[in-house]
Design brief:
The complex is a heterodimer of chains A (750) and B (224). Chain A is mostly helical. Chain A is 65% helix and 2% strand. In chain A, helix 10 packs antiparallel against helix 18. The longest helix of chain A has 33 residues. Chain A is globular. In chain B, the strands form two sheets. A two-stranded antiparallel sheet of chain B has the order 1-2. Chain B has a two-stranded antiparallel sheet with strand order 3-4. Chain B contains nine helices and four strands. In chain B, helix 7 crosses helix 8 and helix 8 crosses helix 9. Helix content of chain B is 50%, strand content 4%. Chain B is mainly alpha-helical and 224 residues long. Classes of the chains: A mainly alpha (750), B mainly alpha (224). At the A-B interface, helix 18, helix 22, helix 23, helix 24 and helix 25 of A face helix 2, helix 7, helix 8 and helix 9 of B.
Chain lengths: 750, 224
């Protein structure tokens, strides 16, 4: 771990003065003396040093202390950036962190007068990189990834090879120029350098792209490429490095290299899937020890990474395959809280890793490790940009010929421009064997990384705006659209089956079949009837909705349209859905399902800072509910004659209430479909929470109709009563008591 | 069997199906023979032999679409008992891609045809209207793997219909109400018509991957 930074501080004479008479040197022979401390010690006091009232032993805690301090520094830096709101929008976070690192490096250099310790490659590859990649793989959106997998693989494999050889050969050409004095760099060295500088870095790409919010497809293309090119770059790097050490290179070695590539890539995937399946299987049995469930996810993923690294396979590909493979089954098996825990911890660790990486990048830049050569470095940057642009152009030409969804030229520009290099290159260059020009390579790598992160990172956002790259779709697809899309999917799959035509649906359907027939029975604890994703999200939203309303102090109780109706609940009046007014019901449903689809579609694919599914809609809905709650209180203070309200005192509502129907009436405005549904919950009362909570299923709004003019509005009826005040009190009561109960839901899916 | 594929190709070309090549017809012919078991016609039961179709939730609708007389252009309503190769091709032709060199009128006609096909799939009782019941059935079929969720299916369908109604109600004042692709002479409830409108408005893309099948042009998207 870098830096006895603190020990510097402590070692400085200023601190030494403080130590003076209060410090007691540690005993040299602590063994037998310890037992007989008491009386002897007292006697010893007079002869030797005084008993220490206060002692300082830094060596004891040095390593963990410094690690924690660095992490603390990273986190405080992050807080600092986000305090000043405008800054992250102009300068990407990665730049700021490198800057902080540069400052830190400068300080260390100044204090210590020698190079600050460089980030250890082992630490980077074994500790800092896995959390980020795990986070990326776990939250990778399946559908766009697999839809574009061909393109991604093409860019990753062929593109990287193209870049490596292009940069290597052109730099070799530059080295031939006599005036540059670079002739001692052989072709092999140039190729080696090319192999480590050509690879696009997932960490840097992630941190920059998530702030510019391009459309999902573009994001997944660049991101997927940055992850998968690890296999290629690992192979090429190792290949060239071993070539450097070999005296002669035969053709069979080249073929061995090609074969190695396949082994690395496919082997990585297999290792990952294996661990993923084992993890899924393990979680099947964790019903009684929910607390350690999240641990399994992390342990197995990390194991897959380490195992792959052990066999010199691609660890990144392994960990991604593991995460994607196990996600589906693990999430069905574990509890809701474990699920949240996993999400939180992943985000936390990847965030910390990310920050630390950039800071160390900055720190390591300062120092004596560099040898400067203007032509080499400048041409490196130029060639990196040039070959990447060419590669993207050529490959996209082929992609567009083969594929339906074309990659437009604006997309191509962003892909080419978004090829950022980062910490992986940096670590790889330090792993190079020592040869005379190593420092030049280090310098070149550093410059390229700083250039891409700073210049490209900062300018990509204005360029995106300038080119008006298609942003994430703003419009909410309607329920009808969702159904149509699903319908069309199935239709096309069916037609393809009939016509004997294999499309992407073929593999998807095959995989689904395999999954439902074999895997699910084996890996899932409760093999329920698999629910369609529409319904899953629907239920999830209903539950979420209920929780939000509860939190805002308004309780709903209603029979839902699911199996609640079949259950035996005593004392809770269930209103038959058929007798509800169609319009009213549909309004609610429409709002709910529109919420549903909004969540499904507009959550950004990958976001470093927030948990998936947390941003946007949930917050908005909550906000709206809180606002309504406020307006409700205002409403209450006005007596409204034509409002009627029924209310049930909840304290004795456990099973009774057969005469008072639980009701929630709301006023709904159905306006612009694009906006978040404006639900005015002016009155929410009644609660009978024992039974529905036991079922733990979904709750819906039950309401009575009240015809009023437009089909879109249902008025709230509030009964004038003296119990207005009681409402407030009971509300407060409920706020404290309900959430725990309500949250103890039984459903395990999603 | 004595099919003269060249004749069929000419025939289809005359029906303005220029985008179908001889090679594609041959492929489909092979497939047709496979499905029908070397018979000249296929019936509904022939589709049982396609294993992958079993897992398709809207299987029955798809199969039915092949025999729908409206799709086959044989009549206003009803189901044919069996179809021959030409009918098979007719159905398949609904999925051919839009060519870039079509003019506006052709494009419009083309899109209308596709839309009608889809409409017929929803409209199971052949009355030219999609009622709430029919729509519900569609949603239920889409969720057909879970029999416990009928209620949810219903409410989702209801929600969709209402939403469609509200969208069209909102739009009716703005845009002139174009005649629905399925020409309903009698005034139909807003909700029902609106479905077609929604289908039209939403820029849904259906694309069959290029391959040996229907087309080999690079840009094969048939947009609804």
């Amino acid at each position: 771990m870098p830096g006895p930074f603190l020990s510097l501080l402590l070692g400085s004479p200023a601190v030494g003065a403080l130590q003076g008479p209060w410090l007691r040197p540690p005993p040299e022979d602590a063994g037998p003396e310890n037992g007989s401390w008491g009386p002897e010690g007292a006697q010893e006091n007079e002869s030797s040093v005084h008993l220490a009232v206060f002692s300082l032993d830094y060596q004891h805690v040095q390593v963990p202390f410094e690690i924690t301090l660095w992490i603390m520094l990273a986190s405080l830096a992050k807080i600092g950036f986000h305090l000043y709101n405008k800054l992250p929008s102009v300068v990407p976070e990665s730049c700021l962190l490198i800057f902080v690192g540069l400052i830190m490096g400068g300080i260390i250099y100044g204090l210590n007068d020698k190079s600050p310790p460089v980030m250890d490659s082992d630490i980077f590859f074994l500790y800092l990189l896995p959390p980020i990649v795990l986070d990326a793989g776990y939250f990778m959106p399946h559908r766009p990834f697999f839809e574009n997998i061909g393109t991604i693989l093409l860019y990753a494999v062929v593109g990287t090879i193209w870049n490596v050889f292009g940069i290597g050969f052109s730099l070799y050409g530059i080295c031939q120029v006599k005036s540059f004095q670079l002739q001692d760099i052989s072709l092999l060295h140039n190729l080696l350098f090319g192999s480590l500088i050509a690879a696009v870095d997932p960490v840097a790409v992630l941190s920059v792209f998530e702030e510019i919010h391009v459309n999902e497809k573009l994001h997944i293309l660049v991101f997927g490429e940055s992850l998968l090119n690890d296999a290629v770059s690992v192979v090429l790097y190792k290949l060239f490095r071993s070539f450097c050490e070999m005296s002669t290179i035969k053709t069979v070695d080249v073929f061995a290299g090609i074969g190695n590539f396949f082994v690395v890539g496919i082997g990585g995937v297999l290792v990952g899937l294996l661990f993923g399946m084992i993890a899924a299987f393990t979680t099947r049995f964790t019903k009684n020890i929910r607390v350690i469930e999240p641990l399994f996810v992390f342990l197995y993923s990390y194991l897959s990474y380490l195992t792959a690294e052990m066999f010199h396979l691609s660890g990144i590909v392994a960990i991604i395959a593991c995460a994607m493979g196990m996600k589906r089954y693990v999430e069905a098996n574990i509890s809701l809280k474990s699920h949240t825990t996993i999400k939180y911890f992943m985000k936390m660790w990847s965030s910390v890793s990310d920050t630390l990486i950039f800071i160390f990048l900055g720190v390591s830049t300062i120092g004596d490790n560099h040898e400067w050569s203007w032509p080499y470095i400048c041409f490196t940057i130029i060639f990196c940009l040039l070959w990447r642009a060419l590669g993207v152009l050529v490959l996209t030409f082929f992609v567009n010929r083969l594929h339906v969804n074309t990659v437009t030229s604006k997309d191509q520009f962003i892909i080419a421009y978004g090829g950022l290099r980062g910490a992986i290159c940096f670590s790889l260059v330090f792993l190079l064997p020592d040869f005379p020009r190593k420092k030049l390579f280090i310098a070149a790598t550093t410059v390229v990384i700083l250039f891409t992160v700073f210049v490209q990172g900062m300018t990509i956002r204005p360029l995106v705006d300038l080119l008006d790259v298609k942003r994430k779709g703003e419009s909410v697809p309607t329920v009808g659209e969702q159904i149509h899309i699903r319908f069309l999917d199935h239709l096309l799959a069916g037609i393809e089956d009939i016509s004997g035509h294999w499309g992407q649906y073929y593999w998807k359907d095959k995989l689904e079949y395999f999954n439902s027939k074999y895997l699910q029975k084996f890996l899932l604890r409760e093999y329920d009837q698999p629910k369609s994703s529409i319904v899953l999200l629907y239920e999830k939203l209903e539950r979420k909705h209920a929780i939000e309303l509860v939190e805002a102090g308004q309780l709903i109780h209603a029979p839902s349209h699911t199996s609640l109706l079949n259950s035996n609940r005593s004392g809770v009046m269930v209103k038959d859905s058929d007798s509800l007014n169609e319009a009213v019901l549909e309004n609610i449903q429409k709002i709910l399902t529109r919420n549903l689809y909004k969540i499904r579609r507009t959550v950004p694919a990958y976001n470093r800072h927030t948990l998936p599914g947390e941003s946007g809609t949930a917050e908005q809905a909550k906000e709206i509910l809180i606002l309504r709650h406020r307006s409700l209180r205002i409403h209450m203070n006005r007596s409204d004659s034509d409002h009627s309200r029924k209310e049930k005192n909840d304290s004795d509502s456990a099973h009774g209430g057969s005469d008072t129907k639980p009701k929630l009436r709301r006023s709904l405005t159905v306006g612009n479909p694009e906006k978040v549904p404006g639900m005015k919950c002016n009155r929410s009362k009644s609660m009978s929470f024992s039974s529905p909570l036991q079922l733990g299923s979904t709750e819906l709004v039950n309401e009575e109709e009240r015809e009023k003019g437009s089909h879109a509005e249902i008025e709230i009826h509030m009964k004038e009563s003296e119990r207005k005040k009681e409402v407030c009190r009971t509300e407060a009561l409920l706020l404290h008591t309900i959430p725990a109960h309500l949250l103890r839901t039984g459903s395990k899916t999603c | 069997m004595g099919f003269n594929l060249g004749l069929i190709w000419l025939h289809l070309t005359s029906l303005c199906l220029q985008t179908v090549t001889l090679e594609q017809i041959e492929h489909l012919h092979r497939r047709f023979k496979q499905i029908s078991g070397d018979q000249p016609t296929i019936r509904k039961e022939s589709f049982d032999s396609i294993p992958d179709l079993e897992f398709n939730p809207i299987r029955s609708k798809i199969v039915r679409a092949f025999f729908d007389k409206r799709n086959l252009r044989q009549g206003p309503c009803g189901l044919a008992d069996e179809i021959n190769f030409e009918d098979f091709l007719t159905i398949m032709s609904y999925f051919r891609p839009i060519e870039m060199n079509m003019d506006e009128e052709q494009l419009d006609h083309f899109r209308n045809e596709k839309l009608k096909f889809l409409f017929h799939m929803y409209d199971s009782d052949n009355d030219g209207k999609i009622t709430l019941q029919e729509y519900r059935k569609v949603v239920e079929e889409l969720l057909s793997r879970n029999p416990h969720l009928d209620e949810s299916a219903r409410s989702i369908a209801d929600g969709a219909m209402m939403e469609a109604a509200s969208i069209c109600v909102g739009q009716m004042g703005v845009m002139p109400w174009q005649p629905a692709p399925v020409s309903l002479s009698q005034p139909a409830p807003a909700a029902q018509l609106s479905q077609t409108r929604c289908m039209r408005e939403s820029r849904l893309n259906t694309s069959l991957r290029c391959g040996r099948g229907l087309t080999s042009t690079p840009r094969c998207t048939s947009a609804f």
